[in-house]
Write a structure and sequence with these properties.
133 residues, alpha+beta, 5-stranded antiparallel β-sheet, 4-stranded antiparallel β-sheet, globular
């Protein structure tokens, strides 16, 4: 199992590759809250995402693109074998780094969140006005 870590600005890029003659489990966790995208290559590993007492299983990862939020309570478990090699690239940024992104890239997440809250607040106000008559 090889895991190369490349840090560019506020992003961390993980290049993960691995193969095994026998079926092997490889677990990966993040030590802080991140927003990330994972791209799986031609190796078709089984993936189980464990969070709390819940699990989400992916049995066909060949060509999969997966966006996610994860923190120290989320675990990604890959089942690797000779016929199912791991080929994955993950691009992640820490939640704490969102305010530090150049060219206001972090504002994208903040402004969408504010717009959604505003829209919901306006909807709620309209609903109250209809009830009052």
């Amino acid at each position: 199992m090889n895991r190369d870590i490349i840090d560019i600005n506020d992003f961390t890029i993980l290049v993960e590759t691995g193969t095994s003659k026998e079926e092997t489990l490889d677990a990966c966790v993040f030590d802080e809250s991140v927003i990330a995208v994972a791209f799986y290559g031609s190796g078709n590993v089984d993936l189980t995402v464990e969070y709390g007492d819940k699990k989400k299983e992916f049995n066909y990862t060949k060509g999969l693109a997966l966006s996610f939020y994860a923190d120290e309570r989320v675990q990604f478990v890959h089942t690797i074998s000779n016929s199912k090699p791991l080929e994955c690239i993950v691009i992640a940024t820490s939640i704490s780094n969102l305010d530090n992104h150049p060219n206001h890239e972090g504002d994208l997440f903040e402004s969408k969140s504010k717009a959604k809250r505003l829209k919901m607040a306006n909807f709620s106000l309209k609903k109250v006005k209809l009830v009052k008559k």
